[in-house]
Amino acid sequence: MYCQRSTDKVLERDCLIKKRRANFSSGAWQVAGLFFLVSALMLSGGCGTGWRMDYGEPAAQFLSANVAMQGPQYVGEKVTVQGAVTEVLPDQADGAWVYLDNGIRCNLGQFRAMAGEVSVGETVLIDGILRQCDREDILLEPALLRDPAAPFTPLQ
Question: What's residue 50's pLDDT?
Answer without folding.
Answer: 41
